[in-house]
Write a structure and sequence with these properties.
Layout lengths: L13 E5 L2 E4 L4 E4 L2 H4 L8 H11 L13 H13 L6 E5 L2 H16 L3 E5 L8 H5 L18 E4 L4 H4 L3 H18 L6 E6 L2 E2 L5 E2 L2 H14 L2 E5 L23 E4 L10 E5 L1 H4 L15 H16 L2 H20 L5 E6 L4 E5 L8 H13 L2 E2 L1 E3 L5 E4 L7 H19 L1
Parallel strand pairs: 3-15, 5-6, 5-7, 7-10, 10-11
Antiparallel strand pairs: 1-2, 2-3, 4-12, 8-9, 11-12, 13-14, 14-17, 16-17
Helix pairs in contact: 2-10, 3-10, 11-13, 12-13
Length: 415
């Protein structure tokens, strides 16, 4: 049996996936607005991804990439270089996002010869010890595991709704606190890197403003710190641009990708300029399953589908439709505090009558939505944010259906 420590978001036993739908063992069909936590970017079992994986399985399943090279790995590196920011041309591969984050941490410390990193409140970077030490989205992830890795310092994130401020006020406050952190806890010459999610993921689906990101970039340049963009959830078109950082007009030193990269096959990577990557110590990168041949084949097919079917543009258009639909249907509801997001990464923050985070209502609304055939996930420190994260192939009618179903579910959850 499965570990009892696993928390199930739904009671669905999925036996088949097709496009934006999952089918349960009972034969019921569910509109999947979880996408495997943003993983099935091209939908479930896209024919081109299935064909690529099947073809690869028949020729080479595992070519361990510190032992031998294989064609799909080299092809994928070339393709990623084409879509990455201009300076990034060297890649490391792993299986999960947390491994890629850990690899960037090692490189940042080696390259700068500095011990510390700065992350932002509410960020999620993984569950292994190094990346978990950088994760502050909720205390349940860290509970009972302290002390974790030293050298991680947490700056406030410009979560304007949380503070009850407008965005300019939140940005100004958070930049002042960032500077104060450098003056009081981690000196610039001891700080290797700053990690930033273009949209705060597990912490509540809060987009970063371009003003804030540019200001952090300037501080990194001034002090010789690296800027690492964690695009594990935001990348590969999720936000309506290929990378979340494309909304921000900033130059990253490293970009981390995973989730939507291979349409459900386990694959993660990070990219950096070759001269930066060369500053790591030999042997500091590796792993048994990184760059698996089947996963790389699936990733190549995923990139083809994203380009050929215009999925980045679809994410932008359907994201606007989703945001507008939710705001019109429930934006004035007394227990809806905020509707926000970017592209197909939209969060609805639920509150109680006193304006406090309402995780209980979120759970009830999601449970009822599941019963009505719509699968959703929570995020936020209190589980108060319902997140909408459909596959990038979602169509106009499916967006309308999701908005209608959730509106009904919320009304019934309130009672």
């Amino acid at each position: 049996m499965l570990s009892p420590l696993l928390t199930q978001a739904t009671g669905v036993h999925a036996v088949k996936g097709e496009g934006a739908y999952l089918y349960g063992a009972d034969g019921d069909r569910y509109l999947d607005f979880t996408a495997g936590i943003g993983v099935t970017s091209t939908g479930h079992c896209h024919p081109k991804v299935v064909e690529a994986a099947q073809k690869q399985v028949a020729s080479l399943i595992h070519g361990q990439y510190t032992t031998v090279m294989h064609p799909r790995l080299l092809e994928l590196s070339e393709r990623l270089e084409e879509v990455m920011p201009a300076s990034i041309d060297s890649f490391f591969y792993a299986s999960a996002g947390t491994e890629a984050v850990e690899a960037t941490l090692r490189l940042a410390r080696h390259a700068t010869e500095r011990p510390n990193v700065i992350v932002f409140q509410g960020g999620f970077h993984g569950r292994t010890v190094g990346s978990l030490s950088m994760t502050t989205s909720k205390n349940g992830l860290r509970a009972g595991l302290e002390p974790l890795m030293a050298g991680v310092f947490v700056a406030p994130f410009p979560y304007a709704y949380h503070y009850g401020w407008d965005e300019p006020t939140a940005v100004e406050f958070c930049l002042k606190q960032f500077d104060h952190l450098l003056a009081t806890q981690t000196a610039p010459d001891e700080t290797a890197a700053v990690y930033l999610e273009p949209v705060l993921g597990e912490g509540g689906y809060v987009p970063v403003t371009a003003e804030f990101a540019k200001a952090i970039r300037r501080r990194c340049d001034e002090h010789g710190m690296l800027l690492v963009m964690d695009e594990i959830q935001t990348g590969i078109g999720r936000t309506g641009k290929f990378w979340g950082l494309d909304h921000l007009d900033v130059r990253p030193d490293m970009v981390i990708t995973a989730k939507g990269l291979a349409s459900g096959f386990p694959l993660s990577a990070f990219g950096a300029p070759r001269e930066l990557m060369a500053k790591g110590r030999p042997g500091s990168q590796g792993g048994t399953y990184g760059g698996n041949a089947v996963s790389c084949a699936a990733a190549l097919a995923t990139l083809d589908v994203v380009q050929q079917e215009g999925l980045v543009e679809n994410a932008a258009e359907r994201g606007r439709q989703l945001m507008a639909g939710l705001q019109e249907a429930i934006g004035n509801h007394g227990l809806v505090g905020d509707v926000r997001g970017r592209g197909l990464m939209v969060g609805v923050e639920l509150i109680d009558t006193d304006g406090n985070p309402n995780g209980g209502l979120s759970a009830k609304a999601r449970s009822r939505a599941n019963e009505l055939g719509l699968l959703l996930l929570p995020c936020g420190a209190y589980g108060q944010v319902v997140r909408f994260i459909p596959p990038l192939i979602v169509d106009e009618s499916q967006i309308d259906s999701a908005v209608e179903t959730f509106t009904t579910a919320l009304a019934e959850a309130v009672g």
